[in-house]
Amino acid sequence: MFKVYFCILKPYYLMQQKIHDKTFDLFIPNEDITAAIRVLAQKIHADYQDETPIFIGVLNGVFMFFGDLLKNYPGPCEVAFTQMSSYAGTSSTGIVYTKMELSKDIKHRHIILVEDIVDTGNTIENLYTYFQETQQPKSIKIATLLLKPDVYKKDFTLHYVGIEIPDKFVVGYGLDYDEMGRNLPDLYQLSSK
Ligand code: 5GP
Prior knowledge:
Radius of gyration: 17 Å
Shape: globular
Number of domains: 1
Oligomer: single chain
Number of strands: 10
Strand content: 25-35%
Strand order of the largest sheet: 5-4-3-6-7-8
Structural class: alpha/beta
Number of helices: 4
Bound molecules: guanosine-5'-monophosphate
CATH architecture: 3-Layer(aba) Sandwich
Distance between the termini: 25 Å
């Protein structure tokens, strides 16, 4: 009911986006994303009542989600950022390297790795292993706004998932198509037309 109402009000030019050579259709409006994030923030807070966790954002795609998640997190916390990258041509083997080192000491601290989207899970698994083996945190949990369950086949636990989506390429709300589209407040998916 709400979605029909929303789409009627949404200006026509926001229903589709042309980015580079591709067309994307409106998929999840910002209002629905924000609602899912509020729930996620409360869920995380319930698990860290008496703690001060460090939220670590995995750049670049996470920047919008990270801001909204933290605005809705009601407890004490710290923040830090990291950046990962896959070596060109080897993404299928899941070889990922750290492009930006952490600016904060996370030894003996509870950390929450915050991702925009988990697809195969290679990035987050590599990041988890890297922090676990080199930084000696007290605990590590993972929060992701989006998950593609049809693609994700790992046993590796994702502790906090905002929205499950089908296996279709999405842009907006921080996510890019060839560096464009990150500033769109809504989420769009690749048009099948
Ligand atoms: P994974 O390592 O889980 O296969 O992929 C995670 C990374 O792939 C994400 O951090 C993101 O950069 C990219 N990615 C996966 N699916 C999508 C998508 O649908 N849209 C965009 N823009 N990036 C994606």
